[in-house]
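User: Show me a protein chain along with its predicted structure.
Assistant: Here is one chain, sequence first, then structure tokens.
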Amino acid sequence: MAKVCIISGERVQKGYPVADDFVIRSIRSVKKRLGIAKNNTLVVSHEKLEEYRKKREKYEKDLVMHIVLAGFVLVLFVLLPIFTTGFSITALLLGIVLAAMIVGLSVFSHCPRIEAKGIGKKKRKR
């Protein structure tokens, strides 16, 4: 299996291995079923590490924003019917579905973490 940098898409000799999370496993599963899987090992090359850190940081901020927005929508869909007509199971279910879809939007900017400890994060100054 060839090592491919997830940032540049180029084949590299060495790099930091990327964790095989739910999103990557799902994509690989779909590709295997379609017969287009290349089975490459995903890494972050040494040259693209800083760019990876920026992309990962942006992904984490976006994920938090999506979760907060989903929570707000869920609370809105639960509380609004209580104040107007009473509790509604339909509104609760719709709120849960909508909140899941909002959190699911984070998949489009997914940036998996690096398996090596301490590589993907900047060191904090004390």
